[in-house]
Amino acid sequence: MSYDVIIGLEVHVQLQTQTKIFCGCSTAFNPDNPNVQTCPVCLGLPGALPVLNSKGYHLAVKTALGLNCQIARFTKWDRKQYYYPDLPKGYQISQYDLPLAADGRLAFETSEGPVTIRIRRAHLEEDTAKLVHAGAPDGRRVSLVDFNRSGAPLMEIVTEPDVRSAEQARRYAEELQLVLRAIGASDADMERGQMRVEANVSLRPRGTEPFGTRVEIKNMNSFRSVERAIASAWPRSSA
User: What is the dihedral of CA 230, 231, 235, 237, to 10 degrees?
Assistant: First the structure.
């Protein structure tokens, strides 16, 4: 039986600001000095009050316009509740319910011709801390938390399930990186975690309409890994 692959992409992008989205802590890349760029706001301490970074919001709007999105006349912030070690206060401040922008598109060339991918939504949120999995002096495996990244301004860009191949997914990510750099919204350096790609992949028998069971491939940090991960999840045909 032959299958079609159905792919939707979620890309998280750190915006190019000098300070975090809700406080004055530095966003500089500083992996050698963990937990020094922190304050009560980005650590989620009781009584801390967030204040929005206007430049981060400006860059998010600029990105949305670069992706041909419609800008919302009204948006709001929500608490996305979940517990994980990299989220100290137990929730993430995010524009979940009413996003900043929606209904955009990004066009690019592939080996099979031009492709246009629709953008479902683009919204702002705060980044989480970074988990570092390492070896302790006694040989044990331990997980450490670096809060330098916690609270950095993050833009999440979500596509419609329009991607139909691993090559299209890679080319979309490459073109998006070029747009972000051209408008000065982000360096989008994938090695530094400034741009991370997640793919929602499902398969369906060719000629049918319903989508299959969705599998999410998270936190890919290179174009090659995006293409290889999706290709490995796509059995083009089976007996």
Answer: 130
